[in-house]
Every structure is written in C-alpha cells, then in structure tokens.
Design a protein that fits this description.
single chain; Cytochrome p450; two-stranded antiparallel ribbon; 13 strands
C-alpha cells in the first residue's frame, strides 16, 4: 500500500537553508517534528531528498535493497577529488572488487597482529599526556584524542616508517582538507568563487603534499623488503582473486590515504564524546573504573571483543553521539520503501543521529545509559535502530579496528587519569563530516598515580594521628 509522506514547502527549505549550513541538526529535527519520521525536502541546488529516521528505511537502503542505491557524488566525487578513488569513494564494480580484496585484511585474526602496535602507541601517548598534565592539568581532550587516533592509525598503517613530525603534518593537512570539502558540499553555489580566490587550489595542494608523503613511505617500504604485519603490508600483499595480481602503485596510494582519512577523526570524536559522558556521569564512571582497574594492561583480540561494561559504554557513546551522523545514497531506479515512493535520482538521507535519538525507539534518548546495551537487551533491539557503522555490504570495514582501539584507549585512560566533577553542561554539536562538539572539550585531569599517593599520605597521616 502506498504511503503519502509530507513535503517541506520550498519557501521553508529556502528560509532555513542558511541555518542548515550553520548547523543542520536543529533544522532536520524541526522538520521531523513537523512533517513526520520520513519526509521530502529540497537541498540547496533544488535536488529532492527523502529524509528518514525509520529503521526499516535504513535497513532497506543499506542492506535489503542495497543494489538499487549507491553513494551520491557528495561522498564519491566531492571527497574523492581530494582523498583519491577507493573503498570509501568508489561505487559499483570497482568498489566491490576493492572491498573483496581488502576485507580479509580487516578480519579479526589479521587485526590481532595490530593489538600490540595499538597498545604501545596508546601507552606512549598517555606517557606524554601525563607529562602535559604535570605542566598544566587543563587538557583539551577533543584535541588529545585526535592526536591519539592519528598516531594509532599512522602506526597501524606504516609501523616505524612514519615519524612524529610527519604524523602531525598529515593530521593537520587532512583536517584542513576536510573543512574545505564541507564548505564545497554545503554551499556549492560559492564553489566558483572558491576556485577563483584560490581556496580550492590550496586544498588540492595540501592533498598533493599528503599524497607525496604517503607515496614516499610506500616506496621506502617496497625498497626495504622487510615485513611489519601492518596495514601497508596488507595492501601491498593483497592479490585480486581473479587475476592473482596486486594493486597498482596508484591504487595502493589511494587506499592507504582512504584508510587514514576514514579511520582517524571518526574514532577520535567518539573517544572525546565518551570521556565527556563519563565526566558527566559519576555512577557510570565508577562502575567502569571498577571493571577496568582489575585488568592487566595486556590486551588480546579475543578478550577485547568479549561483552563488557566498557563495550556497553562505547556503544552508548556511539548511539548518543554517532560520529557518522548522516549517511546518504542516491536511488539508481524507482523503488518503494514501506509504501513510500522513491524516484530514480532521489537522494535518500539516513539520519543516524535522529534514529539513535528517536524516543519511540530509545526512551529518554538524551540520557546516557550504557545499560541499554546490556547483553540481555540485545534481542529486543530493533534492526537498524543502532547503526553507527552503517550496514549491509558497505558497512564500515574498520569496525573491529575501531572497537579494539576505543576499548584500549578508554581502559588505559581510566587507569592513568581521574576525571573531574560533572559540569552539567552539554556542548552543542558541530555536524561536519563527523559529529564534532562545537566547542573543545577541556577538562582538568588528575594523574591517578598522584591521587593514589595522596590517598596513601592521608591514610598514613590519619594512622600517625590515631596512634
Ligand atoms: C568510531 C569509529 C568509526 C565510525 C563511527 C565509522 C563509521 C563508518 C560508517 C557509518 C561507514 C559507512 C558509510 C556509508 O555507508 O555511507 C564507514 C565506512 C568506512 N570506514 Fe569507518 N568508521 C569508524 C572507524 C573506521 C576505521 C578505524 C577505519 C579504518 C582503519 C574505517 C574505515 C572505513 C572505510 C574504508 C569505509 C568504507 C567502506 C566501504 O564503503 O566499503 N572506519 N565507517
């Protein structure tokens, strides 16, 4: 049966266009309240988009009917122009071939080899952070988590091949390129002006610097003939099933950049939101502390993937603050989803943030409650009511990688640092490519070692006093 959905009047879309550019979340939330869980609207440039927070819609587009949809040019051309053509930015046959080739490198057994690299990098980073806390305890954790994930992805890809200075340079180039891409996508009418005033050339120049640096690392690795068991080795050693050939130099370069870009900011943002949520909820924090404090710092793939309260905390973070806050697809043919007509060429917006905050699915959605993800509640979870990593054949390839990294990063953080008291303040959102906090998340950290020493001294003082 056909279902009629409402359309946002053109005049309203136009009126809200500038607010949309500034922060799309309130604009979409308002439209959902006014026009229902699935509605039509037009984006800048006049293109029709079907926006939805129905889990069934997401499941159809990403999984059941995925062959009728592909990524729009916002994700392919706009991004691909700067980061290259590969897993994240390709569609169709080429994407499938690359996915089949690279997927085995992300299987749990292969990733197990990266646990050591990750643990070492995280531990080294927290050593530095402890030093910084001694100098000044006020730490911008949103920035710190960017530095952390940047190092982890760089070392997971290039092991010892990449030095500290280059990692920082790459991170800053990638951030600047991403900012530019968001402007191009949100305000395409000014792209002509951006080309004229040199902004586009500047962003392309940064992308060239990044490519050159990564190409040098690849060349160096090829010359050395040493094996490191890292992601670059995986890319170099992968062979196409049909031809038995490896990727060309250009393909390896594109895929390496893509893994870098896809794997760094998404994870950093989730970690920063997680620390914010833990600061704001002493009950959750205490429960988590009691779980992680008893664990040794030796991590293994198997134990990292076991159900745990830490896993629930991370899932709840990704529910409340999904790094990939919206996914889009373009319809390749006419279709119907739960009675809603989709025309060939329509854009479909799967508003992950809205699904994850839908009170009909998640009661009190703004409350941070990791018990929602207790294993006993898993069975009653509606399919695609929680999909921070997307779904279907294009589901995030770095899913296990990210979970491993986040679990080690949060567990080790809790062991090293004491979070401050809650502030009662929720930062506003800055939904760019990922869902960033609009302001930096700064907190006064205490080294746990210091706190424990103080406890011992107080205890000793009391004992002396009592005797
Ligand atoms: C918390 C961390 C992460 C989140 C929330 C996340 C989220 C996502 C989502 C939602 C997609 C699907 C996009 C779509 O269907 O339009 C995706 C794709 C992808 N992600 Fe992640 N991601 C994370 C971490 C990572 C990491 C660590 C890596 C690599 C090391 C990675 C590599 C990729 C790649 C290559 C794709 C494209 C896959 C394809 O289309 O075949 N991601 N990610």
């Amino acid at each position: 049966m056909t279902r009629k959905i409402k359309t946002v009047p053109r005049i309203e879309s136009l009126k809200r266009a500038f607010n949309f550019v500034e922060n799309p979340i309130p604009v979409v939330d308002h439209a959902l309240k006014t026009y229902g869980d699935t509605y039509y609207t037009r984006i800048i440039g006049g293109r029709k988009i079907v926006m939805s927070i129905e889990p069934g819609f997401a499941q159809h587009v990403l999984q059941k009917g995925n062959k009728k949809y592909e990524k729009s040019e916002l994700q392919t051309d706009a991004l691909g122009k700067y980061v290259g053509y590969g897993l994240l930015t390709a569609n169709g046959e080429y994407w499938l071939r690359q996915r089949r080739l690279i997927q085995p490198g992300f299987h749990k057994a292969k990733l197990a080899a990266l646990v050591g690299i990750m643990t070492e990098e995280i531990s080294k980073f927290y050593d530095d952070l402890e030093e910084r806390v001694i100098q000044d305890p006020n730490i911008d954790v949103s920035h710190a988590m960017m530095e952390l994930t940047l190092r982890v992805v760089a070392k997971s890809l290039f092991s010892t091949g990449i030095n500290e200075e280059d990692i920082i340079k790459l991170g800053s180039w990638i951030s600047d390129i991403q900012k530019h891409i968001v402007k191009e996508v949100r305000m395409p009418i000014f792209n002509f002006w951006r080309r004229l005033n040199g902004q586009t050339r500047k962003a392309l120049g940064l992308a060239d610097h990044a490519k050159k640096m990564i190409q040098d690392l690849i060349d160096e690795r090829k010359r050395s003939e040493e094996k490191y068991g890292d992601l670059l080795d995986m890319l170099l050693d992968s062979k196409y099933e049909d031809t038995g050939e490896s990727m060309s130099d250009e393909q390896i370069l594109d895929e390496a950049i893509i893994l870098f870009v896809a794997g760094y900011e998404t994870t950093a943002i989730a970690l920063a939101w997680c620390l914010h949520a833990l600061r704001e909820d002493p009950g959750v924090r205490a429960k988590l502390e009691s779980e992680v404090m008893d664990q040794t710092g030796e991590y293994a793939m198997e134990s990292l993937m076991r159900p745990s309260y830490l896993g629930q905390v991370i899932d709840e973070t990704l529910r409340k603050y999904p790094s990939a806050w919206i996914l889009d697809r373009i319809a390749l043919e006419d279709d119907e989803i739960d009675g809603v007509k989709i025309n060939k060429g329509d854009l479909v917006g799967l508003y992950v943030f809205g699904v994850h905050r839908n009170p009909k699915i998640w009661p009190e959605p703004d409350v941070f409650n990791p018990d929602r993800f207790h294993p006993s509640n898993k069975k009653s979870q509606i399919s695609y009511s929680f999909f921070p990593f997307g779904g279907g054949p294009r589901m995030c390839i770095g899913y296990h990688f990210a979970y491993m990294e986040m679990r080690i990063a949060i567990a080790e953080f809790m062991k090293r640092f004491v979070l401050p008291q809650p502030t009662g303040h929720e930062p506003d959102y800055l939904p760019l490519i990922t869902l960033k906090p609009r302001e930096n998340i700064v907190m006064k950290l205490k080294r746990r070692q210091e706190e424990e020493q103080m406890d011992e001294e107080v205890h000793a003082g009391v004992t002396v006093h009592e005797s």
